[in-house]
Design goal:
The protein has about 190 residues and is an alpha/beta fold. Helix 3 links the parallel strand 4 and strand 5. Strands 2-1-5-4-3-6-7 form a seven-stranded mixed sheet, with helices on one face. It contains five helices and seven strands, in the order αβββαβαβαββα. The protein has one domain: Glutaredoxin (3-Layer(aba) Sandwich). About 30% of the residues lie in helices and about 20% in strands.
Length: about 190
């Protein structure tokens, strides 16, 4: 039974997300929408909030006395069992390294079931020298965002408005250039 567990998990939990049609767009959100707020647990069991970095105009950040500056936020829905997610890590790390000292926050939103036979997220990221922090989710946020396929990247501006949604990964595209262009245009 244990050798069939990953297949069963995929069929029952992931296939509704991917859907039977070929439309891999994000179901609920589009560019120009305000990003729904979230709070997710870090690998160190603390919480990270989107409102720590970006909120709509005329609103204060969650902790303005500690962190008064708005940031661009890039986050990707990811799982260790997803080959395109893993392939995307190194180019994503290049973008992270380019902007890590600017007002841009990066997060990997990990949808890997910790009870599955999938590789451990921390171990995988360490082995690949990925420095982007990851946050744990159990598809709660994925459903809230209408994710239908992974990897899916959101780039949110300083006022919480979605500026780019990138679904899937193809190593032949100018991934680093496209994300850099989006970030540069909103910084």
């Amino acid at each position: 039974m244990n050798k069939y567990l990953p297949c069963l998990i995929f069929i029952f939990f992931v296939s509704p997300i991917i859907s039977q049609d070929s439309d891999f767009s994000v179901k609920k959100l589009k560019v120009g929408d305000v990003a729904p707020d979230w709070s997710l647990r870090t690998e160190f069991s603390k919480y990270e909030f989107l409102k720590n970095w970006t909120v709509t105009k005329n609103r204060q950040l969650r902790k303005p006395s500690i962190q008064p500056d708005r940031h661009v936020v890039l986050f990707v829905f990811f799982a260790t069992w997803c080959p395109p997610c893993v392939d995307q890590l190194l180019p994503l790390e290049k973008v992270y390294q380019k902007y890590k000292d600017r007002k841009v926050k990066f997060f990997i939103i990990d949808e890997t079931d910790p009870n599955s036979d999938s590789p451990d997220t921390r171990t995988m990221l360490s082995e690949k020298n990925i420095n982007i922090p990851f946050l744990r989710d159990n598809w709660t946020l994925g459903r809230k965002y209408g994710i239908r396929a992974i990897p899916t990247i959101f780039v949110v501006d300083k006022y919480g408005v979605i500026q780019n949604i990138r679904v899937a990964y193809n190593d032949e595209e100018d991934f680093v250039g496209e994300l850099s262009k989006t970030i540069d245009s909103i910084l």
